[in-house]
Design brief:
Length: about 190
């Protein structure tokens, strides 16, 4: 298997998570051992975004990463005590507990997939350390928030072999290009 380091960026809602999920599915279908996670929105019955969950790529279990302050029905004080990004309280301790599991999964993985390096994830010092380890690996796919300026993102960009900036006009073409490049790397 050929080495690849794919960094994907783009505005929110442009398809970064969709692309990462497609890549992870392709890798698993081809028998590649994958570790990592992607994030998904939590929406209310009427479509209002209430938070985010992390989904483990290997085992598909989920946990809450962040919850809007408005959605804390009885635990408003709990929400006030947590670190915040915008209107979201972030469960940093739970995320760091998961990172222990992720590091174990990465020891046996051929490829690591992370969606995303964003402001909520960067509240965790442990996440930054894990990202340093991932960047040093030969094969990874990582998305990052387009507006965040952080040393780990600069390092991620500097070490990537393929950079993808998704937009609403190029996302289908770029998705097919990335999947084609993955297939080619897996054949070698």
């Amino acid at each position: 298997m050929k080495d690849f380091r794919i960094a994907i960026t783009g505005r929110p809602g442009v398809g970064k998570t969709t692309l990462v999920k497609r890549c992870a599915d392709l890798l698993k279908e081809m028998g590649v051992r994958v570790a990592g996670f992607y994030t998904e929105e939590i929406r209310s019955k009427n479509g209002v975004r209430e938070g985010f969950v992390v989904v483990d790529v290997l085992y598909q279990y989920t946990f809450e990463l962040a919850k809007s302050m408005e959605s804390f029905r009885y635990g408003q004080a709990l929400g006030q005590a947590l670190p915040r990004v915008g209107r979201y309280a972030v469960f940093v301790r739970e995320f760091e507990n998961y990172l222990e599991v992720l590091e174990r999964e990465m020891q046996n993985a051929d490829v690591t997939v992370i969606d995303e390096v964003g402001p909520m994830e960067l509240l965790s010092h442990r996440f930054i350390q894990v990202m340093e380890k991932i960047i040093a690996k030969p094969r990874w796919i990582v998305t990052h928030h387009i507006k965040i300026k952080h040393p780990v993102i600069k390092k991620l960009e500097a070490h990537s072999t393929i950079r993808v900036k998704l937009t609403t006009t190029n996302r289908n073409i770029e998705r097919e290009r990335v999947l084609r490049l993955l297939r080619e790397a897996l054949k070698e």
